[in-house]
Amino acid sequence: MGSSGFLLLTRAKRLAKPPDECRGGFEDLPLELEPAPRSGGATCSGEVEVDDLDARVTLGPVCRLDLGGIAKGWAADRVLDRLSQAGPALVNAGGDVACTGGPWHVGVETPSGTVTLELDSGGLATSGRDRRRWMRGGLEAHHVIDPSTGVPAATELVTATAVAACAAEAEVLATSLFLAGDAGRAATEADAGGVPAVLVLSDGSTILAGGLG
């Protein structure tokens, strides 16, 4: 495996938790282990062995990796590393923001209007079911998979936005908050962890948590 991919994988593995513990909580998610071939309703499972010396990754039987819960934020951070050598910079990688040398004003869309957050440095990311969704068997599905069930997460949240020290961490935290399912639980976790968060609910209301409210 190439050096960049190996660094990304080792970071994801460090942050991951077993699937049966992945229901909210700030250590959830970025490494998803999926049975292959993909089949509806299969829980995430399998083993990943990482050899730091040879930069070798070995997957257990019928196991594959999905790094979608961290890769885009990690890429934004790497671009920022390069740009920041020239001075203040902000990278927007499809909604995952990494910045330094602020203040920067970043808007978060909600049904009642834009919530503007001021960032001096760090990252911001949003996880949600408002865009990448489709109908299957007469039911709406979306792309955020609950590792404990292997199917799209059941949640009253539409989006969860989190601010962190870097974009990769923000992406992990946003997805973890989204997986909490219950808006009250997500807000409590953001408050307890001191994670600035904007939570949009199915009824169109918005909760500001983690010191924003």
How would you characterize this protein structure?
By secondary structure, this protein is α+β, with helices and mostly antiparallel strands. It has one domain: T-fold (Roll). The strands form six sheets. Strands 5-6-9-14-15-16 form a six-stranded antiparallel beta sheet. Strands 1-4 form a two-stranded antiparallel ribbon. The longest helix is centred in the N-terminal third of the chain and has 13 residues. The termini are far apart. About 13% of the residues have low confidence.
CATH third-tier fold name:
T-fold
Shape assignment: globular
Query: Average pLDDT across residues?
Result: 76
- Low-pLDDT segments: 18-44
End-to-end CA span: 44 Å
Domains counted in the coordinates: how many?
A: 1
Note the total helix count: 4
Q: Write the CATH architecture name.
A: Roll
How would you classify the helix and strand content by structural class? alpha+beta
Question: Strand-residue fraction?
Answer: 35-45%
* Order of strands in the sheet with most strands: 5-6-9-14-15-16
Strand count: 16
Query: Major beta sheet, specifics?
Result: 6 strands, antiparallel
The CATH superfamily is known as ApbE-like domains
Question: Can you tag this structure with a few keywords?
Answer:
213 residues; alpha+beta; T-fold; 4 helices; globular
Architecture blueprint of SSEs:
Layout: H1 3-15, E1 32-35, E2 48-51, E3 56-59, E4 63-66, H2 71-83, E5 89-93, E6 96-100, E7 104-110, E8 113-119, E9 122-128, E10 133-136, E11 139-142, E12 145-146, E13 151-152, E14 157-164, H3 167-179, H4 183-193, E15 197-201, E16 206-209
Antiparallel strand pairs: 1-4, 2-3, 5-6, 6-9, 7-8, 9-14, 10-11, 12-13, 14-15, 15-16
